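Entry under discussion copied across for reference:
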Amino acid sequence: WRLLTALQLQSVPHGRSVRACGIVTVRQRPGTAKGTMFVTLEDETGNTNVVVWRDVAERFRVALLSSRLLVVTGG
């Protein structure tokens, strides 16, 4: 799988599986989100907002909370 930039992600059809990479600029886990985490990744073309569901956030907790650079797969 190749990594897509934030700019390239804008033209990908909804529901398609993709991979992206970026520097973590924001991590949010609001108390009202029932365990969902929101992560913003930045690359040279812009920002990508990532929704990480509770079960995935628990499985990858250490990486999500400590990494400065992340590769994410989703769709």
